[in-house]
């Protein structure tokens, strides 16, 4: 038993100093930032595609003003959200870590706050606007369908919105927050290593 305690004590004293070079850490962090930028750009392109897809609905001959009002509300909501996503994307692209580390870290923190605002306050504006737009849009469409199909479509639509607003939204917020916080931590460590070298 004493031998085990002795080995355990030796093991506890033994620490391995794993140091990743600043260059390797910088490459990894830049790769992570590029991934976030790419995802941000894909979100913007997806929203732009949705905007034009919804606008294409006006090519059909709808008779009710509610349908046109619904399409308009949805298009405005998508347009506003796309502009907000674009402004968030610009926060990430306006500075480079290698040119000005302090400014870049500050822009990452601003991006983190902006994303938090996007997922909390602005998300509800978007969800309410989409819901209102869908209600207006479906007034004319649903009137041509049987009652059970109407109820099914309404149930699926609101069920999907509730699912996205609760489980999916919380998971995305958590993942996004952790990913950006980790990036900020990496860049702060890299910045501190460069200061130590100087």
From TrEMBL:
Please list every transmembrane segment annotated in the UniProt record, as residue ranges: 40-60, 66-86, 122-141, 147-168
What UniProt keywords are attached to this protein's entry? Answer: Membrane, Transmembrane, Transmembrane helix
Taxonomic superkingdom: Bacteria
The protein here is known as Uncharacterized protein
């Amino acid at each position: 038993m004493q031998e085990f305690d002795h080995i355990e004590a030796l093991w506890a004293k033994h620490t391995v100093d794993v140091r990743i070079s600043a260059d390797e850490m910088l490459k990894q962090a830049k790769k992570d930032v590029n991934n976030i930028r790419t995802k941000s750009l894909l979100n913007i392109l997806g929203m732009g595609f949705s905007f034009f897809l919804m606008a294409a609905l006006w090519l059909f001959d709808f008779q009710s003003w509610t349908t046109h009002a619904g399409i308009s509300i949805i298009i405005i909501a998508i347009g506003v959200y796309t502009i907000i996503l674009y402004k968030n994307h610009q926060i990430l692209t306006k500075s480079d870590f290698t040119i000005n580390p302090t400014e870049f870290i500050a822009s990452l923190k601003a991006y983190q706050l902006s994303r938090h605002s996007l997922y909390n306050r602005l998300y509800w504006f978007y969800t309410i606007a989409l819901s209102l737009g869908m209600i207006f849009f479906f007034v004319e469409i649903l009137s041509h369908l049987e009652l059970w199909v109407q109820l099914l479509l309404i149930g699926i639509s609101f069920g999907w919105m509730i699912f996205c607003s609760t489980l999916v939204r919380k998971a995305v917020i958590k993942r996004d927050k952790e990913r950006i916080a980790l990036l900020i931590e990496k860049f702060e460590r890299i910045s501190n290593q460069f200061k130590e070298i100087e």
